């Protein structure tokens, strides 16, 4: 039986999958990246394309040392921790191991929990289904809004004014609504050039 202390300390985390690929979204789009996808999410986005990640108990607990060793062995320079919602867990030991192995540490989070661990890049992607913790606004390096409806542009602007100076601003069409939303995003960015367009280019390339 797993010791509760180990789980609380962040030594063991529910690992859904990990793989070396190309970052498909946001500021580091196109860069090689080792992804660590943790299971567990209580945000509940209706359009989520990895709903199988929601149930943490469906994914085996993995020791952070094993995860870090695989990431380091990949030869990559950047590790992206995603989910699910990775902020549910204490990621201090995971980020220490990755950084000690020479990797940049990136996280993709909805921001509903306070950030733990040491991060070189924090991508904050808020969701309407659950509000973010207020501490995320001055920590995030990147704000990525998934655009599903026309109303999401106004919603995005509510966050923009809260972000720290220099935060990169992205609007990304939800994949199933790309044909409808992308033309609107293009027009919006042209009229509001502080924003940038993010596309899920990994899906165009048919890679994970």
Q: Could you give the order of the helices and strands?
A: HEEEHEHEEEHEHEH
The end-to-end distance, rounded to whole angstroms, is 33 Å
Q: Uncertain segments of ≥5 residues (pLDDT<50)?
A: none
Briefly, what CATH class?
A: Alpha Beta
Tell me the CATH architecture.
Alpha-Beta Barrel
Query: Biggest sheet: strands side by side, in what order?
Result: 3-1-2-4-5-6-7-8-9
CATH topology: TIM Barrel
Q: Overall pLDDT, averaged?
A: 94
Fraction of residues in H or I helices: 25-40%
Number of helices: 6
Tally of separate domains:
1
Q: What general form does the structure show? A: globular
Sketch the major β-sheet.
Answer: 9 strands, mixed
Number of strands: 9
The CATH superfamily appears as Aldolase class I
Strand content: 15-25%
User: What structural class results from the helix and strand content?
Assistant: alpha/beta
Radius of gyration: 17 Å
């Amino acid at each position: 039986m797993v010791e509760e202390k180990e789980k609380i300390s962040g030594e063991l985390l529910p690992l859904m999958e990990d793989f070396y690929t190309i970052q498909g979204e946001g500021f580091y789009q196109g860069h090689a990246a080792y992804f660590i996808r943790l299971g567990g999410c209580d945000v509940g986005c209706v359009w989520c394309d990895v709903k199988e990640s929601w149930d943490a108990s469906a994914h085996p607990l993995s020791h952070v040392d094993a995860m870090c060793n695989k990431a380091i062995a990949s030869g990559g320079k950047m590790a992206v921790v995603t989910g699910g919602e990775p902020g549910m867990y204490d990621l201090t030991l995971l980020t220490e191991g990755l950084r000690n192995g020479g990797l940049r540490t990136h996280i993709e989070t909805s921001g509903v929990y306070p950030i733990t661990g040491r991060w070189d890049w924090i991508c904050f992607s808020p969701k309407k289904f659950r509000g973010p913790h207020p501490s995320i606004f001055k920590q995030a390096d990147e704000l990525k809004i998934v655009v599903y409806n026309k109303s999401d542009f106004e919603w995005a602007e509510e966050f923009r004014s809260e972000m720290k100076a220099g935060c990169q601003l992205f609007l990304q069409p939800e994949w199933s609504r790309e044909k409808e939303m992308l033309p609107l995003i293009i027009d919006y960015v042209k009229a509001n050039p502080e924003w940038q367009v993010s596309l899920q280019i990994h899906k165009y390339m048919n890679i994970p």
